Amino acid sequence: MSEEHAIRAAVPCRACLSGEDLDWLGGGRSVSLALDLPTTVEVVPGETTEVAAADDWPAQVWTFLRGRLPGLTPRPPAVRVRSQAPPASGLSSSTALIVALFRAFAEAGSPPGERVPEGSIVQWAYEFEFARFNGGGMDHLAVAEGGALLLDGRERGLPRVRERLEFPDDWRVVVVDSGTRKDTRDHIRTVRAQLAAGDPDLAAYRAEADRASAAAWAALRGRDHEALGAAMARAHAAMRDFQGMSTPLLEELRSLALRAAGLPLKVSGAGGGGSLVGVCRAADAPGVVARLAEALRGPHPGARVIPARAAPGSRSRRADVGA
Predict the structure, then answer these.
(1) Fewer CB within 10 A of the terminal residue: the chain, N end or C end?
(2) What's the pLDDT at 314?
């Protein structure tokens, strides 16, 4: 790695608009949206880090890459990490970090002028996380590709991208971070046990979430943010009623958002905590955010409101570069 060349990888987080778990349950549609709340990894030239504890992602990603890229040193280079996404919030900030580490380390370990294909980066990041959490690949595709994706799930391997769309420029995403953390590992273990047992609640959830995903994608295609909000509310109800993925606190925050700002919210990710997301017109966003923040200030001081733009799709980014 040249000390003159700064290596930096910035990766967006993602909101799941509908279809949690369908990306790895072996069928069904899910809808993801990349959010411009990036996690950034910067390689520090000339410095290395000790191989640290088992939960040290830089060390583990570097070890994974040493088995695939020749000539890597025993110790990973030092990195600086910054993230605009709240941690353990259902917005895939951990996957964004892992993809950013793979991108930065692959560039640091490649000869000048050579580049590891993006498809390999995404596949490796998925394999790395699957070995640890046994989950799906929606997050890896969502943060790597950007934009909105309609995905077809598979029991193992990255889901298939059925369609891609750019999120409307005149819409905004409103994130309500509940201040409570979610636990993906226990959630995935529980749902896999349901799948093995043929649980009827899981079957009902899969069918309803798939229908909600179809409605959400139709709303995106039609640029109808109210229809999208209704589809997201339908997806949330399926998560809550069939799979118990909501909590009393999350439901209270949803009710408060409807009363204070008329904004339907949906939990993003495995549930049990984390963040809720809603969509509104860009022109309305400042007022929506202000009313929500004011309503939360007294009863829920640990919650916060984060306005966000969608992160553009990779095809749009390439077009901008070539323009």
Answers:
(1) C
(2) 72
Q: Which fold has domain 7-165?
A: Ribosomal Protein S5; domain 2 (3.30.230)
Q: What is the pLDDT of residue 11?
A: 98
* Interhelix angle 93-109/57-66, nearest 10 degrees: 50
Residue 191's CB: how many other CB atoms inside 10 A? Answer: 21
51 backbone φψ class: left, alpha, beta (φ>0; ψ -120 to 50): beta
The confidence score (pLDDT) of residue 321 equals: 30
Whole-angstrom distance, CA of residue 291 vs CA of residue 215:
28
- Count CB neighbours of 307 within 10 A: 16
Q: What number of CA atoms fall less than 13 Å from residue 286's CA on the CB side? A: 1
- Quote the CA–CA distance of 111 and 219 in Å, as a whole number: 45
β partners of residue 83 = 39
CA 242 distance to own-chain centroid: 22
Instruction: Give the sign of the dihedral formed by CA 150, CA 99, CA 88, CA 314.
Output: negative
Q: Give the integer Cα–Cα distance in Å for 175 and 277.
A: 5
DSSP reduced 3-state for 47: strand
Beta carbons within 10 angstroms of residue 213's beta carbon: 24
- Tell me the CATH number for domain 171-315: 3.30.70.890
Residue ranges of domains in the chain:
7-165, 171-315
* Residue-wise DSSP of 8-71: EEEEEEEEEEE-TTTTTTTS-EEEEEEEEEEEEEEEEEEEE-----TT-HHHHHHHHHHTTSTT
Q: Give residue 7's Cα distance to chain centre.
A: 23
> To 10 degrees, the CA torsion angle through 320, 9, 29, 162?
40
Determine the pLDDT at residue 49: 59
Closest CA to 102 of 81, 82, 120: 120
